[in-house]
Design goal:
Elements (H helix, E strand, L loop, with lengths): L11 E9 L2 H17 L7 H19 L7 E9 L4 E8 L19 H8 L2 E6 L5 E8 L10 H7 L9
Antiparallel strand pairs: 1-2, 2-3, 3-5, 4-5
Helix pairs in contact: 1-2, 2-3
Length: about 170
């Protein structure tokens, strides 16, 4: 008789919401994502909370400014795989144009959003969605131990995923 194996409990937490494709909608997406992260145990002021919130802000702003189609919303989906320690951010809009890296000049105030997303996340990409448009997704891998406000200095110097003192 085979020995029963215990399997880890896999927890998947999900938050999803539609927003108007406006600056106000993008701001609300950021605020609600930040609140959801707190609910999932990632307090404000930690590197993980701030990094994921910034990624949501950038992707939501792109959906509102570049992915806007009159009369259409954009959707935010956050999923937290507690077993793998991964937070996945998905922002879907109805515009067919694909996002592109733009080399921003030093004096320009735009063109850095995807550079930030690339720097803060483990990986990101674009996929087609059912219906018109696309979904831009990104994955943020949490450190093995939770980040605290005390490690903010290390995160500021080395990036939010360094957490060398935690590993």
């Amino acid at each position: 008789m085979p020995t029963p194996r215990s399997q880890p409990v896999v927890g998947a937490r999900v938050f999803t919401q539609r927003f108007s494709a406006t600056r106000r909608g993008a701001r609300l997406a950021r605020l609600l994502a930040a609140l959801q992260l707190v609910e999932w145990g990632h307090p404000r002021g930690t590197g993980d909370h701030d990094a994921v919130t910034l990624v949501v802000a950038e992707l939501a702003a792109n959906a509102a400014l570049h992915g806007r189609v009159a009369g259409r919303d954009f959707a935010l989906l956050l999923s937290y795989d507690t077993y793998r320690g991964v937070i996945r951010i998905e922002v879907s809009d109805t515009h067919p144009a694909q996002p592109a890296h733009v080399a921003a000049a030093l004096d320009e105030d735009h063109g850095r959003g995807l550079v930030l997303v690339d720097a803060l996340t483990t990986r990101w990409g674009v996929r087609d969605r059912v219906g018109p448009g696309k979904t831009v997704w990104a994955e943020y891998v949490l450190p093995t131990e939770p980040c605290t406000p005390a490690c903010g200095q290390a995160a500021a110097e080395n990036g939010p995923r360094c957490h060398a003192a935690h590993m």
